């Protein structure tokens, strides 16, 4: 009788582990999607001049780990929104800098377009890629299999620079 109980418990344990693993994958996928959507939504709402929403994901106390609370948009966040509006069409960095400045962001430096390019190349989230030609940027998520044209061969802190 003990063997039957042990077998039943082991089968139940295995089933629960599989179920837990499936749920964790679902949560991770949903969290990744949420982490991509929420900052873009906040940026669009800020650009429209809309007040902050009372939605739970707009607060630091959200129950979902990894949410970032109310953080002002960065230049890279703004570029991400601009490129997302273009439906996978790359944009030249000079045109991108003009569009960013039209949206009220000061880029600084003697050559603002060069400052923007430097920011895009060092984006910690690695959201941008030059899929076809140097100087043209697109969202990495739009071109997941593309090589980064003009990427350097050396590495910085264990990660390829681009």
Folded structure, characterized:
This protein has 162 residues and is mainly α. Helices cover 48% and strands 7% of the residues. The protein is built from 4 helices and 5 strands. A 3-stranded antiparallel beta sheet has the order 1-3-2. Strands 4-5 form a two-stranded antiparallel sheet. A hairpin with a 2-residue loop joins strand 4 and strand 5. Helix 1 crosses helix 2 and helix 3 crosses helix 4.
| Helical content (DSSP H or I, runs of 4+) | 40-55%
Class by alpha and beta content: mainly alpha
Given as residue ranges, the uncertain stretches (5+ residues, pLDDT < 50) are 58-69, 154-162
Give average pLDDT, whole number: 80
Strand order of the largest sheet: 1-3-2
* Percent of residues in beta strands: 5-15%
3D shape: elongated
Largest sheet, described in full? 3 strands, antiparallel
H and E order = HHEHHEEEE
CA-based gyration radius: 22 Å
Number of helices: 4
Number of DSSP-assigned strands: 5
Terminal CA distance: 64 Å
Write the layout of secondary structure elements.
Elements (H helix, E strand, L loop, with lengths): L1 H46 L27 H11 L5 E2 H10 L9 H10 L6 E2 L6 E4 L15 E2 L2 E2 L2
Describe the structure in brief.
The chain has 162 residues and is mainly alpha-helical. Helices cover 48% and strands 7% of the residues. It is elongated, with a radius of gyration of 22 Å.
